[in-house]
Specification:
Its main location: mitochondrion. By secondary structure, the protein is mostly helical. The protein is built from 15 helices and two strands.
């Protein structure tokens, strides 16, 4: 390939950090998506915690019940009335939060933000009226701050999300959680990604390393007794740091992390799990960057064997990647076939962004083909 064309091709590999509206589960936001024209979606989406099927927080979903402790003698009737009022208040709060989550899942971020603020004001009102104590206020407020922070991340409001995540962490620490608790580590991953998006690379590197070191130590100490959430969170941290290393052009470090994450995915996730396929695509993309097209082809074929059956959202990008690998190997007819497969799938899904990427793939393959004539 001509040197100028090669520079043009590789210039398209620069990362664009942004929050992603995950098709899998929009309320789980733990990673930034990269969109390229050539190697499509290396670190293909910021679906981290959702895709890893990781969940840990005892204050998410249905709000945990807190038993009433009678500090002074009260009649059974009074206690029953107090419990019923508490049930009604918490049911109302759960409904408000549920509406916020539903709006967020529909990408109606304005409505979601309004519901979360309504929930926060409702909690403050309960506290002013003496219906919840300081401890319960902290618990509920932290829950809502976390949801608002995730929403800010989805909207790309990184400064706002950063403040809210830090408030969430502060609340968790006040609730008695240790800084190495899984909940704190997950938020630390998000903060590291925010720092990376704001080009605060030193802070991002420190954040990612803290998360990886913390989870590596946990899984090593727990050994075979390590719970699934802890192991999957370790995979999440490894993958997040790997994408950061790629952005920093530290390809060997990135590959080491990706292979560790892939080992975890292979052991604990189903064969057709989307996260496993995404990692295989990312590994293939890294070998492409290193110039090892044979290994790049191997990982991409393995990913496509499953992706074609499961019809994952990233299928057009996988085809484009395969096409560009074939082109680098001089197999231009196969390369065009892969790009056309990407175009067909994208058109069938009415995915205009992927249509454009597939057309770019065809154009790039033709340029490569013409450059060797």
């Amino acid at each position: 390939m001509a040197a100028s064309l090669k520079r043009e091709v590789f210039s398209k590999l620069l990362f664009i950090w942004r929050s992603v509206n995950s098709k899998v589960s929009q309320q789980c936001v733990s990673r930034f998506q990269t969109k390229q024209t050539i190697i499509k979606n290396i670190g293909s989406s910021y679906k981290l915690s959702c895709q890893w099927s990781y969940k840990h927080r005892n204050y998410q979903g249905e709000l945990p019940r807190v038993s009433l402790v009678a500090l002074f003698p009260v009649s059974l009737a009074a206690a029953k009335n107090a419990e019923e009022e508490k049930d009604q208040n918490e049911t109302e709060l759960v409904m408000i939060l549920r509406k916020g989550i539903q709006a967020q899942n529909k990408s109606d971020y304005k409505a979601a933000d309004e519901f979360y603020h309504e929930a926060l004001h409702f909690v403050y009102k309960l506290h002013r009226e003496g219906k919840i104590d300081d401890k319960r206020l902290l618990h509920l407020q932290t829950n809502i701050f976390d949801k608002m922070a995730n929403l800010g991340l989805l909207k790309g409001e990184f400064d706002h999300a950063e403040v809210l995540f830090k408030d969430t962490m502060k609340g968790m620490l006040q609730m008695g959680l240790d800084k190495t608790d899984n909940a704190l580590v997950e938020i630390s991953v998000k903060l590291a990604s925010i720092y990376a998006s704001k080009q605060k690379f030193d802070d991002a590197e420190l954040g990612y390393q803290f998360c990886v070191d913390t989870m590596a130590k946990k899984t090593k100490e727990q050994g075979l007794d390590a719970d699934l959430d802890t192991t999957l969170l370790y995979g999440l941290c490894l993958e997040s740091q790997a994408r950061f290393w790629v952005y920093q052009k530290e390809y060997e470090k990135a590959l080491e992390n990706y292979h560790l994450a892939l080992d975890i995915a292979a052991k604990y996730l189903p064969l057709d799990h989307p996260q496993k396929l995404v990692i295989m695509n990312d590994v293939s993309s890294l070998y492409y960057l290193k110039g090892d097209m044979t290994t790049a082809e191997k990982y991409m074929e393995e990913a496509l064997d499953v992706a074609e059956v499961t019809q994952v959202p990233e299928l057009p990008q996988f085809y484009c990647n395969q096409g560009l690998i074939f082109a680098q190997l001089g197999r231009f007819d196969e390369a065009e076939t892969s790009c056309r497969k990407a175009l067909k799938v994208a058109k069938d899904r009415d995915d205009q962004e992927s249509v454009k990427e597939a057309l770019d793939c065809l154009a790039d393959v033709r340029k490569m083909k013409n450059s060797v004539k």
